[in-house]
């Protein structure tokens, strides 16, 4: 069962999303909040698998809430769910550790599938968003990226595909602890603090490599991209 927490200051919106989620056999809403302050306290108490966060809250930003949640408990995945298509907000969401940035005009089943995929640790950004992040981060990180070892680049690519450390270890025939050390090392070299940043950065890099364009499956603003 995938446990979902909803954060939106509009009760009608929360009710609609909750009804949609609770109709699914593998999903359940375990809590709701209408403010950033409520969200931080209640998410800490319920520890959901996925938190669906509105960007604009009465006492703050859902992106700031995402950053705090991911810092306090990295196992909680965050989906930013908003009516506003904003490049700067999308970029900020990635840096905050969000799994994706989904517009409210997305179809119900796309939202459900986004929640399921976020729960699996997938990074739900379009190739265009990934490229935008790389262009913003790339100037400062081009040289550090070149210093990654062949194994670190393999790990980075698998992170960008949404694999967990255990799954990466199984694929590369490495101990999970060894993978964790590689992840820590590549984050240090890239000057990044969050796995999500590395995942999107890696996705953008691979999307620009030969035969790399079909490696990313993502929702981003609601369009499924291959």
UniProtKB/TrEMBL annotation:
Q: Name one GO biological process term.
A: phosphorelay signal transduction system
Going by the UniProt record, its keywords in alphabetical order are: DNA-binding, Phosphoprotein, Transcription, Transcription regulation
Q: Please tell me whether the keyword Transmembrane helix is annotated for this protein.
A: no
Question: Entry's InterPro entries?
Answer: CheY-like_superfamily, NreC/VraR/RcsB-like_REC, Sig_transdc_resp-reg_C-effctor, Sig_transdc_resp-reg_receiver, Tscrpt_reg_LuxR_C, WalR-like
Where in this protein does the record say 4-aspartylphosphate is found? Answer: 54
Q: Which SUPFAM superfamilies match?
A: C-terminal effector domain of the bipartite response regulators, CheY-like
Gene3D superfamilies for this protein: 3.40.50.2300
Q: Please list the residue ranges annotated as the HTH luxR-type domain.
A: 141-206
Coiled-coil features, chain-numbered ranges? none
**Molecular function terms in GO for this entry?**
DNA binding
Q: Which residues form the Response regulatory domain?
A: 3-119
Q: Does the keyword Transcription apply?
A: yes
Q: Where are the transmembrane segments?
A: none
Q: What is this protein called?
A: Response regulator transcription factor
Organism whose genome encodes this protein: Cryobacterium algoritolerans
Source organism lineage? Answer: Bacteria, Bacillati, Actinomycetota, Actinomycetes, Micrococcales
């Amino acid at each position: 069962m995938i446990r979902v927490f909803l954060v939106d200051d509009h009760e009608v919106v929360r009710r609609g999303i909750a009804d949609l989620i609770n109709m699914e056999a593998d999903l359940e809403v375990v809590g709701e909040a209408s403010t950033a302050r409520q969200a931080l306290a209640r998410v800490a108490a319920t520890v959901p698998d996925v938190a669906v966060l509105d960007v604009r809250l009465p006492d703050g930003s859902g992106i700031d809430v995402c950053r705090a949640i991911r810092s306090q408990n990295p196992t909680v995945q965050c989906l930013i769910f908003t009516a506003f298509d904003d490049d700067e907000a999308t970029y900020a969401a990635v840096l905050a550790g969000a799994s994706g940035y989904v517009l409210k005009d997305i179809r119900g089943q796309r939202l459900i599938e986004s929640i399921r995929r976020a729960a699996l640790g997938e990074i739900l950004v379009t190739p265009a968003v990934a490229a935008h992040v790389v262009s913003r981060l790339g100037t400062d990180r081009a040289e550090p990226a070149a210093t990654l070892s062949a194994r670190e680049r393999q790990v980075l690519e698998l992170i960008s595909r949404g694999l967990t450390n255990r799954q990466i270890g199984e694929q590369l025939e490495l101990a999970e602890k060894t993978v964790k050390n590689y992840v820590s090392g590549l984050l240090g070299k890239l000057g990044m603090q969050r796995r999500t940043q590395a995942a999107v950065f890696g996705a953008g890099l691979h999307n620009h490599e030969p035969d790399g364009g079909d490696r990313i499956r993502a929702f981003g603003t609601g369009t499924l991209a291959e």
